[in-house]
């Protein structure tokens, strides 16, 4: 007797009811009734494809307005919506897209890329490169700032992180330059960090493909090359640099900026802080072209920086996308009270035990603390690395490449990584140390939730951070996040408190899980060693004196 047949007698499998499950096991066809294709079954999310096994199988990753391919076609949406029929219609469009503008004679935004090409006659090579890069629909900042720059007006733009600000100035600059010329630099972009400058350089190269524009990212190597070839300086069209390196080159008479027509400050709030102000003054003074167009872009522009910027700009138009000094609404923000410093390490380990979806970015307030946290997590068996300014250029580049490729799951960073670096797919940002300003907070958490993707940000705070809590609570509320009622009753920090925190971060205990007894033991051992060294030095000097 067949026992299994007897047990299964009368049992029936309802294929109609479980059609989607059946489709997964049937021989794949071009399109199944359930709409499940072989490609979709085989795909892995990009951030989990650590070995790049699926990178060439499918190009169906959706990217919105930030230079990534969308859906099945690389062609730009061909819907031409045409110009606005009235100022009221344009005003309603701005309201829908949360675009606020301030100034006189403000050009209307455009609604689609076909509108941009047809209304402004933007160069054909830009359309081709947009299609090849996968841009389909413009973002809000692009819709408004590009027409302003094409009208040769100066712009001061504040838009959330990951909203496509770089393309918003790259397109109009390349359109205006038309083609390569041998008259020296005609466009200059300043960025506060080398990593951001490299990213801007990549976007210019991408959008200028096929036109042979000479684009220079200022480095020791590029300066050395130009020093050996005097004529080479005249062949470049676009220069991208950090302030200090550029000022040094200007002072050494290695760079001339007299032909610069376009000057862009990316992360303008940082560049117009006291630390960079003297350098920026020298750069402004060196750009002597009479019709110089100045543009400022940032995710945050405090009122003091805005007032300072107006002194060097000519009748600028100010753009604010969404709420000023707010994060993008695609980021779920959370504040977690940990009591003392030790609670942060416990909190991170609990998060990891629950299960985190890499890649994860952790911010601390200093290089020393970055090293300490790294040594704690690396011994927990976590795939972790650390990046800060003490690491070499090659090391930093390798770390960022590995993080992007999924070879590093958790990256510990200082403020170096907080600004402008575009790493697709960061799922979680952890503020291990409370940010020193609202601007720092917005830029830090802006590494996730980019280009329309969802992201999460967790910020730990201790008793020492409590006086500054309300500043972050206000950002969360402006961004549409839920905030506990008790946090809304916390007092706002005073101006002096904000200033002090920005200049001098809170002194914190060392990051480690060592017991108090072990710490005393190590401290005592160090004291004994130091005392022994001093005694040997004294004995040696006494012997030498006797001789």
UniProtKB/TrEMBL annotation:
It comes from the Eukaryota. Residues 58-81, 514-547 are annotated as: Disordered. Transmembrane segments: none annotated. Its EC number is 3.6.4.13. A motif (Q motif) lies at residues 115-143. Residues 330-491 form the Helicase C-terminal domain. It is found in: Nucleus, Nucleolus. GO terms for molecular function: ATP binding; hydrolase activity; RNA binding; RNA helicase activity. Keywords: ATP-binding, Helicase, Hydrolase, Nucleotide-binding, Nucleus, RNA-binding. One of its GO terms (biological process) is maturation of SSU-rRNA. Residues 146-319 form the Helicase ATP-binding domain. InterPro entries: DDX52/Rok1_DEADc, DEAD/DEAH_box_helicase_dom, DEAD_box_RNA_helicase, Helicase_ATP-bd, Helicase_C-like, P-loop_NTPase, RNA-helicase_DEAD-box_CS, RNA_helicase_DEAD_Q_motif. One of its GO terms (cellular component) is cytosol. Its main location: nucleus. SUPFAM superfamilies: P-loop containing nucleoside triphosphate hydrolases (SSF52540). Pfam families: DEAD, Helicase_C. Residues 63-75 have a biased composition (Basic and acidic residues). Belongs to the DEAD box helicase family. DDX52/ROK1 subfamily. PANTHER family: ATP-DEPENDENT RNA HELICASE RHLE-RELATED (PTHR47959), RNA HELICASE (PTHR47959:SF15). This is RNA helicase. It comes from Basidiobolus meristosporus CBS 931.73. The lineage of its organism: Eukaryota, Fungi, Fungi incertae sedis, Zoopagomycota, Entomophthoromycotina.
